[in-house]
């Protein structure tokens, strides 16, 4: 089975990405010989005012390509982009969907902490699923709000006094859970884009990430909404969750040191607003598409 891991990083995430790469290196020893993986990473250099920064662009480029050495177990596509091609994770994910020839695609944010077995169990699960389209998700700690509770591991559902304290969660507790790794159906569709979900490539190629969503924002919401609509139209599509395989963001110990020494061009709020403005029109277009395909 061929799996395509897609990662978008900003220069200030380079240390997180290095740590993550070591986690994936550990996990590679659990893969089967026939598990082929492409690690496809773009270092986005476009949103920094380099002339006003203390750290030079070349530092991050050199470190980025040095990290690539950790992927001697996989095929790689490492791109340091300063040509305004990739301005956000949507751009990276959209491009990867269009080009991918793999069976599955994994979106992974640079600050995610996970058990070394995670990639193995995601791939092994995909091998036994018979649905034409599918999403396979790890579990998470209690986070954000109660709409995420269906993905929360039972040991963590009451572990935080409030959803707002998610940022204080110790991410390394993902290693402490006990119990068997079980694949179970998930009612409906729910996922965070970079939280190590494995998605069948044919699903992503069918739903797509519309160009109008821009470089950042709502790509995961658009995919899950599209999956809901496909289910309503009786497509052979389901989401599954692997119990006791847990991932989480490293908010508590995240290194933000570089942000003091490079001048960031912050476009996130504008990009998110533009995504919201385009989202509903694109969902209506997709709904018409799948209704017509079933007639």
Question: What is the CATH superfamily classification?
Answer: Spore Coat Polysaccharide Biosynthesis Protein SpsA, Chain A
Secondary-structure-based class equals alpha/beta
Low-pLDDT parts are: none
Total strand segments: 11
| CATH architectural arrangement | Alpha-Beta Complex
Shape: globular
Q: Termini separation (Å)? A: 33 Å
Evaluate the radius of gyration: 19 Å
CATH T-level topology? Spore Coat Polysaccharide Biosynthesis Protein SpsA, Chain A
Report the order of strands and helices. Answer: EHEEHEHEEHEEEHHEEH
> Helical amount among residues, as a percent range?
25-40%
| Average of pLDDT | 93
The figure for the number of domains is 1
**Main pleated-sheet profile:** 9 strands, mixed
CATH class: Alpha Beta
**Number of helical segments?**
7
The fraction of residues assigned to DSSP E strands is 15-25%
Description:
It contains 7 helices and 11 strands. The protein has helices spanning 14-28, 57-67, 89-99, 118-128, 201-207, 219-232, 268-293; strands spanning 2-9, 36-44, 48-49, 75-81, 104-108, 112-114, 133-139, 182-186, 195-200, 237-249, 263-264. The strands form 2 sheets. Strands 1, 2, 4, 5, 6, 7, 8, 9 and 10 form a 9-stranded mixed β-sheet that branches. With 295 residues, the chain is α/β, with parallel strands linked by helices. It is globular, with a radius of gyration of 19 Å. The mean pLDDT is 93. 40% of the residues are buried.
């Amino acid at each position: 089975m061929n799996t395509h891991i897609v990662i978008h990083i900003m220069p200030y995430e380079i240390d997180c990405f290095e740590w993550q790469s070591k986690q994936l290196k550990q996990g590679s020893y659990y893969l089967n010989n026939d598990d082929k993986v492409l690690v496809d990473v773009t270092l986005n250099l476009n949103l920094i005012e380099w002339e006003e920064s203390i750290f030079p662009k070349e530092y991050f480029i050199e470190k980025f390509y040095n990290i690539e050495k950790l992927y001697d177990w996989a095929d790689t596509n490492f791109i340091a982009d300063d040509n305004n091609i990739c301005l956000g994770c949507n751009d990276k994910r959209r491009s990867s969907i269009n080009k991918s020839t793999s069976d599955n695609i994994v979106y992974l944010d640079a600050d995610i902490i996970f058990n070394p077995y995670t990639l193995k169990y995601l791939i092994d699960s995909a091998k036994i699923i018979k649905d034409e389209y599918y999403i396979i998700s790890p579990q998470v700690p209690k986070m954000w709000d109660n709409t995420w509770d269906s993905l929360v591991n039972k040991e963590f559902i009451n572990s935080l006094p409030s959803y707002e304290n998610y940022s204080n969660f110790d991410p390394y507790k993902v290693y402490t859970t006990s119990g068997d790794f079980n694949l179970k159906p998930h009612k409906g569709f729910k996922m965070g884009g970079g939280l190590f979900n494995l998605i069948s490539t044919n699903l992503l190629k069918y739903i797509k990430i519309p160009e109008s969503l821009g470089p950042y924002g709502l790509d995961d919401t658009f995919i899950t909404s599209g999956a809901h609509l496909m289910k309503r139209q009786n497509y052979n599509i389901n989401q599954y969750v692997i119990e006791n395989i847990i991932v989480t963001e490293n908010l508590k110990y995240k290194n933000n040191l570089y942000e003091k020494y490079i001048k960031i061009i912050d476009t996130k709020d504008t990009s998110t607003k533009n995504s919201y403005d385009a989202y509903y029109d694109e969902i209506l277009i997709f709904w018409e598409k799948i209704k017509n395909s079933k007639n």
